[in-house]
Amino acid sequence: MTQTVEQALTNVLGHLDKKMRGTLLGIATRTIQATPVDTGRLRSNWQVSTTDYAQGELGVSSESTPIGKANAKIMSMEIGDTFYFSNNLDYAEEQEERKGMLGNAVNALLVELG
Fold first, then answer.
1. Which long-range contacts (CB under 8 A, 24 or more apart) does 17-21 make?
2. Distance of alpha carbon 69 from its chain centroid, rounded?
3. How far is CA 74 from the centre of its chain?
4. Chain center to CA of 99
């Protein structure tokens, strides 16, 4: 079957879009799942935004809630949007330094990509 250049470009862009969204969701999911749980506040406060770093703190929720919210935001992103992924709790940075939740998720992605 012969494709036009336009059809081929549309297919490539669709593939890249799917890969980009999957990569962002993979980083968010791995980070959230690797976040240590005592009360659940730290894990529940991972937030995704496309306009700026999220502000404020969220209440405790199940693990699926921040992952679901991240997925919804990622699926609504458009070309040119910026992906902001943050945790606003005052002890989040300390936990990242000790446990490396986000850093490990990004490193795992780099290993996968080769």
1. 21/74, 21/75, 21/77
2. 10
3. 7
4. 18
* Residue pair 54/39 in contact by the 8 Å Cβ criterion: no
**pLDDT for 26-69, tens place per residue?**
999 999 999 999 999 999 999 999 999 988 888 888 878 999 99
The pTM of the full predicted model, rounded to 2 decimals, is 0.85
Residue recorded with tokens 């999957």: 22
| CA–CA dist 13, 56 (Å, integer) | 35
Q: How far apart are CA 31 and CA 67, in angstroms?
A: 10
Which residue type sits at 53? Y
Query: H helices then E strands: how many in the chain?
Result: 5, 2
Distances, alpha carbon 82 to alpha carbons 26, 51, 66, 92, in Å: 16, 7, 18, 22
Chain CA centroid to CA 72, Å: 11
In this structure, are residues 99 and 105 in contact, taking their beta carbons and an 8 Å threshold? Answer: no
